[in-house]
Amino acid sequence: MIISMKNSAPQAEVQKLIDSIEKKGLSVTLIRGANYNVFGVVGDTTILDEKLIAANPYVDDVTRIAAPYKKANRIFHPQDSVIDVRGVKVGAGQKICVIGGPCSVEGEESLMTIAAAVKEAGATMLRGGAYKPRTSPYAFQGLATEGIKILCEAREKFGLPIVTELMSVEKLDEFVENVDLIQVGARNMQNFDLLKALGRVKTPVLLKRGLSNTIEEWLMAAEYIMAGGNENVILCERGIRTFEKYTRNTVDLSVIPIVKSKSHLPIIIDPSHATGDWRLVESMSLAAIAAGADGLIIEVHNCPEAAWSDGAQSLKPDNFAALIQKGRKIAQVVGREM
Amino acid sequence: MIISMKNSAPQAEVQKLIDSIEKKGLSVTLIRGANYNVFGVVGDTTILDEKLIAANPYVDDVTRIAAPYKKANRIFHPQDSVIDVRGVKVGAGQKICVIGGPCSVEGEESLMTIAAAVKEAGATMLRGGAYKPRTSPYAFQGLATEGIKILCEAREKFGLPIVTELMSVEKLDEFVENVDLIQVGARNMQNFDLLKALGRVKTPVLLKRGLSNTIEEWLMAAEYIMAGGNENVILCERGIRTFEKYTRNTVDLSVIPIVKSKSHLPIIIDPSHATGDWRLVESMSLAAIAAGADGLIIEVHNCPEAAWSDGAQSLKPDNFAALIQKGRKIAQVVGREM
Amino acid sequence: MIISMKNSAPQAEVQKLIDSIEKKGLSVTLIRGANYNVFGVVGDTTILDEKLIAANPYVDDVTRIAAPYKKANRIFHPQDSVIDVRGVKVGAGQKICVIGGPCSVEGEESLMTIAAAVKEAGATMLRGGAYKPRTSPYAFQGLATEGIKILCEAREKFGLPIVTELMSVEKLDEFVENVDLIQVGARNMQNFDLLKALGRVKTPVLLKRGLSNTIEEWLMAAEYIMAGGNENVILCERGIRTFEKYTRNTVDLSVIPIVKSKSHLPIIIDPSHATGDWRLVESMSLAAIAAGADGLIIEVHNCPEAAWSDGAQSLKPDNFAALIQKGRKIAQVVGREM
Amino acid sequence: MIISMKNSAPQAEVQKLIDSIEKKGLSVTLIRGANYNVFGVVGDTTILDEKLIAANPYVDDVTRIAAPYKKANRIFHPQDSVIDVRGVKVGAGQKICVIGGPCSVEGEESLMTIAAAVKEAGATMLRGGAYKPRTSPYAFQGLATEGIKILCEAREKFGLPIVTELMSVEKLDEFVENVDLIQVGARNMQNFDLLKALGRVKTPVLLKRGLSNTIEEWLMAAEYIMAGGNENVILCERGIRTFEKYTRNTVDLSVIPIVKSKSHLPIIIDPSHATGDWRLVESMSLAAIAAGADGLIIEVHNCPEAAWSDGAQSLKPDNFAALIQKGRKIAQVVGREM
After folding, report:
1. A242 close to D (CB below 8 A)
2. What residues have CB less than 8 Å from C325, skipping those under 6 apart?
3. A15 touches chain B (CB under 8 A)
4. Which residues in chain C have their CB less than 8 angstroms from residue A288's CB?
5. Which chain C residues have a beta carbon less than 8 Å from that of D305?
6. Can you name the residues that pair with A162 across neighbouring β-strands?
7. Cβ distance of B287 and D283 shorter than 8 Å
8. Complex prediction ipTM
9. Are the Cβ atoms of C136 and D241 closer than 8 angstroms?
10. Which pLDDT score is estimated for B86?
């Protein structure tokens, strides 16, 4: 950590700051510049709070050199992690996973039809929302427990692990008992109570990046779960908020190589939410595979215009199947299977 | 609501869409253009889900004319709302409220010192975090119930209503029993389960704008609380995320006149979090008052460099008192008291 | 175009607005809603200025249905355009073009070495800056005319068309005489005088997207050049500005399918500037090809750490050659050659 | 400047980098950390190019401590600058300047009417566009030289210095001869050739912030002009691009105290372009004055709905006069005249 102070800072104040840091077992080196004095702090700087140091009126700026995450950090864990979701292995050189299914579970018949189709097309897991985060209180909020039950039946029937979103700590038991991969939605990425609760269980977590969260904040959210004891975290990029208006969000595929260099956790891409437009899903999926993604999560609906939510971004089963065919060829070029 | 479809859409598909809308009791008017057909939908369009309509492969675009919120909408509620926080009235032409206090409650002695100082300076409510949303799992997470107790003691002693942040539904009872104004933090603005729970109580809610949420999403979050039955919502701008690096966030003061034109709810400004830098707090506070804000929430600490969180943005009590002195004069110019 | 007005607008004002639009030969249809009156305007709406209409104090909102660009619009020009750059054809099903070379031309020997390497690796054009837009007035500003001369020699020797950036109208003659593909940099995307001047020549233009420009503004900038008579425009995405800090910019690959649906112009990707980090260039290049890009422009330097500008994002020749090898295999999967 | 390298960097490479920096007359201090080596560089670091250093494959990150601008930097020029625009003094404790007038000059009669009105209301300078940067090539592009002539006549008649935008170097002579304050528009903020040309004259320059430019880039653009010899620069904030859709741009008023702490140059605010909506102009103007702005530039039109450009953001003369009346009272509170 680097702390810069204006030269005009009184010597006593400078010494007080140095003492407070050294007392915590870190060492401090001073570099005198023309207008600034710069202090280099060496040791376990994750125990320092940079905002606190910046509060010192004589401090001009504080810069971290080492990342503030440990368990998610590749420096301390050089091997790629592989997360096991009821037998489907995600990450490292494993087969690229393909999670398909509707935005919301809308009923038994409907889900079985879609599940059969995504299985047939080559999906390795089944998604479907039972509890839905909706911008409007007047929009469909999901089938709740009924939706979870239907997902379990589909798993039984088609042998696909199930992925669905948890919105509150109160439902955690229901999820641990029934769900194979618990999704944390973008809007809850910094719902720290939820993250802490997930740290106390062992079920794998699919952690979506918040709409305006930096990669560092995202890895810190993973760190919350891992620090609690649950290291089974899969990261999922789903688009960030920018000024562009032709897409719902801007898909940021550069996170794939960046996450792989900073962390050992697997990363998958959600092109459906990232673009909000089914016409962009295939090209962004192929791009994600070419860039090294460990998986895809894609919305599929047999009748998108009748879907109860997010139909505009859902693929029909035949387009989903075609995407997987092309995706497999791209995967081969980058040395992966899918 | 306006729906545009390419002229190439088959007549049968066009009719199907019109029928489905008319069946809901709305009326549809067609305007034929050279390359597009445009449908105007009239009636209670809040019951339509634009994403679903956009899912129709023949639909090119969907635009709302009327806002999707009702209870928060000034059109249906032309009078300014006044929210009563244990006797302190916020909104309309009421006195501009000033909420002061530390980022975190750090202990009884410390809080009493600060509470005495903010009261003396002219604050009308006391803030202080007991449950703290922290980016890092290794940072101080708040004194929890102990912090709430200390806040209650301070209220007893100084007669200031207390404001503190609720992070999970599980603690709602504790808050309803003890807290006068329940804060929903920026990171939880779209934690819909939390919003729904707050809709079921009567305690006033201070709803912070999310770091990358539009004003419409913010009013929809208020709508969640109000739709549940709790119309005591105060909006709070605390800066949005942009590309600028010299400030932590960018304070968006144009929300003041915009919120006042779109909604009847009071709006206050948090210049401490919006800027992340105590040196910017006074000028942004005066600007907020000049722009018509109904209140301010400001971090104050008697010893910022020793604060347990966010010291960099905390004012010392004397600066806080000076700010209030100047603020009162600005308030007078815009026809308000403070 | 859709114009919405509050119901409270006086009838005389409403009629005045309708008259002024009809006088221009467009037709207006009224849809009455509960709180708004909505007018649909049909005809050549590109001649209307929506900001002017919005200036009417009774107008609440104005929405365009048809895009404001014509010559760049696929609706009026359904066939993909192919741009011929001194014999290298770009766009449609043509071979994916690969433009390689240093950020700046640094001298004859250095450029010849790099040109030989990029040619050997498989590049089809040579890039190199002679006039450099630099954030700091104290940074190297380019070799100017001397740089152009060296590029011409390299073209002579290696048979590669040359691409370089034009920064001011004054140098246009020099560029028309010497350069095969004139680049408009991101910072000049809305330098309208420069765009107009380029509309008066026939040399192909490589139009980079501005750091914070929407796709619509980008296509309108192309429209400026095309409206002047020069339809030889190639679009180039080079990253947009967002809140993320781990990359210099955020590469937005979804522009590839979007531009292809809205326009007939070719689109290429610049992963070097988009990421600012050579370690991300290969994966983003492969992703771009998978997503359907018509070409790549990549910075290559034989000794990046000694480059006079932007070394951090330059590939060494052997990495560039490896990228092309992999890229060719991806191209094959999506039905293209490279 | 702080350079961090992974510990794994070979000693020879580390030494090579140190040598190359020391050769330039700067000194380097090493701090060894657990995983990183950090080098502090002391001396005139404006001569170092951080991108070049970051190009070194062993370098992990480079951070500047001292700002890269000199002439615009308050550290080297502690006194506030006052810019004299044909007798109207801007900056420091001078009277807050008020620049009013139409977006475009539309004709002699129209401009004289508006000029009389803004003069009467209390404006101290007259604005009006003669050369207009328009997103669409089909929109009105300004009266050009004819517009400049009309502005000069208005100056003659009303005694107000004139402000208008320069879009290309070719017209510089015309502007130097006729214009009192030459405006550089947001889209040209990094048109470096234009900035260099303005550095060679003495006419004061009004430098607008680019829509997505950081404060540092803005000060670097000022530095371009100042480095050329023209230190008469006034900065103008006109809104930045964000995700919010209810306003055209987001006005960032925190730039006022920030610019005042980093630089000695005057700063004024353009609430008309920043919001794009005349209904927001008064509140944002009062906020700007409260925050310490040195001036305002506001669009005024006697008949906004008939304006040839940007009518939606123009105030009518009586609203402009009312704004100035209130503004004067706010100015008094913050110790200024207006």
Report:
1. yes
2. none
3. no
4. 287
5. 52, 55-57
6. A126
7. no
8. 0.92
9. no
10. 98
Give residue D330's pLDDT: 98
Residues of chain D under the 50 pLDDT cut: none
Question: Is a pLDDT exceeding 70 seen at residue B310?
Answer: no
Beta bridge partners of A89: A84
Residues 106 to 135 of A: which have CB under 8 A from any C CB? none
A229 touches chain C (CB under 8 A): no
Helix (H, G, I), strand (E, B) or coil at C17: helix
pLDDT in tens, A21-36: 898 888 888 877 777 7
CA nearest to B311, candidates B336, B269, B281: B281
Please tell me which of A10-19, B243-252, C210-219 the model is most confident about, judged by mean pLDDT: C210-219
Q: What is the pLDDT of residue A25?
A: 87
**D334 and chain A: CB distance < 8 Å anywhere?**
no
Q: No. of H helices and E strands in chain A? A: 11, 14
Dihedrals φ, ψ of A7, to 5°?
-60, -25
Are C260 and A282 within 8 A, CB to CB? no
Interface test with C, best of B6, B28, B30, B31 (most C CBs within 10 A): B31
pLDDT digits (tens, 9 = 90+) for A210-220: 999 999 999 99
All structural domains of chain C, each given as residue ranges with its CATH number in brackets, are: 2-63 (3.30.70.1140), 83-333 (3.20.20.70)
> 3-class DSSP state for residue A106?
coil
Residue of C nearest to B62 (CA): C65
Q: What does DSSP say about strands B88-90 and B83-85: parallel, antiparallel, or unpaired?
A: antiparallel
Which chain A residues contact residue B313 at CB under 8 A?
A: 55
Buried b (16+ CB within 10 A) or exposed e, B74-90: bbebeebbebebeebbb
The bridge status of strand A162-165 relative to strand A125-127 is: parallel
Token pair belonging to D322: 């009312």
Residue B177's contacts (CB-CB under 8 Å, 6 or more residues apart) are none
Which of chain B's residues have a Cβ under 8 Å away from the Cβ of C42?
31-34
Q: Cα–Cα distance between D336 and D338 in angstroms, integer?
A: 7
- Say what the alpha-carbon torsion angle B102, B107, B109, B110 is, to the nearest 10 degrees: -30
What is the distance between the alpha carbons of residues B268 and B235, in angstroms, rounded to a whole number? 6
Which of D243, D244, D248 is the best substitution to test chain A (most A C-beta atoms within 10 A)? D243
Do β-strands C233-237 and C205-208 pair in parallel, antiparallel, or remain unpaired?
A: parallel
Section B244-252 average pLDDT: 91
Q: What is the pLDDT of residues C167-202, one digit of tens each?
A: 999 999 999 999 999 999 999 999 999 999 999 999
Chain D residues touching A75 at Cβ < 8 A = 35
Using CB atoms, which chains have 3+ pairs under 8 A with B?
Answer: A, C, D
Closest CA to D295 of D265, D316, D319: D265
B49 vs D190, higher pLDDT: D190
What DSSP element (H or E) covers C273? helix C271-275
Contacts of B224 in chain A (CB under 8 A): 137
Say what angle helices D317-333 and B317-333 make with each other, to 10 degrees: 150
Picking from B208, B213, B157, the residue whose alpha carbon sits closest to that of residue B182 is B208
pLDDT of residue D126: 98
Q: Does A206 touch chain C (CB under 8 A)?
A: no
Burial letters for A75-87: b for 16+ Cβ neighbours within 10 Å, e otherwise? bebeebbebebee
Tell me the C-alpha distance between D319 and D302, whole Å. 10
Residue D299: CB partners within 8 Å, gap ≥ 6? D100, D101, D102, D103, D127, D272, D273, D278, D310, D313, D314, D315
Tokens of D304: 């906004």
Any chain B CB within 8 A of the CB of D330? Answer: yes
> What is the C-alpha separation between A55 and B255, in angstroms, rounded?
28
Provide the shortest C-alpha distance from residue B243 to chain C (in Å). 5
D227 Rama sector, left if φ>0, alpha if ψ -120 to 50, beta otherwise: alpha
